[in-house]
Specification:
34% helix, 219 residues, alpha/beta, 6 strands
Amino acid sequence: PMWLFREMQRKGPGDYLIASPTFPLMEIKVVPEFKRLFKGLGNMGEYVASPIRKFTLNAHGNQTLFGTPDPGEETHIYFGYGSDPDSLESATYKAAWIDEGGQKKFRLASWEAILRRLSIAQGRVLITTTPYTLGWLKTELHDKASKPDSDIALVNFPSIANPLFTKAEWERAKRTLPAWKFNMFYRGVFDRPPGLIYDCFDPARHLVPRFAIPEEWER
């Protein structure tokens, strides 16, 4: 919520997006945390769940974010879900926050739809997630973040970085879980579950530039 608050100050009045894989998942943590800042602490507007989930800034919210109670344009924060790409279309957003975008139910088509909706404003996206699977999040973002011309910032941190997360729980998980699962769910590092075909394949070690196969090699 604090990131979205800052982006709204940067980009000005208009429409913004918060998305999760499903609405039930969103209601567990995202919506309460969002309301705590935008409604409870700031009293900056009203949240409605029907017919469309959205939060509309009031005059106090406009004053807080934009410096005037009437900026000449209404500001809405819409709540969408990534399991249905069509639900994210037909809008122009200035920034988007995606929570748990690494889950299987958050589809690549939904990510692409959000990028299209941000095109006009060239809005930024924040994705907060655990690396659940080796899906589009890894291939489209994680693997491309290290390239010299990348506009992707990758911030990685383990569960133990949370002041509320105890060392005892960290050691228990490390002791009892398979290494790949501990890496993904507690260290935030992509790893390969056992049982995959070629589960030891590492592109950094096992790929080489194309070359002509020498005639003397056995065939």
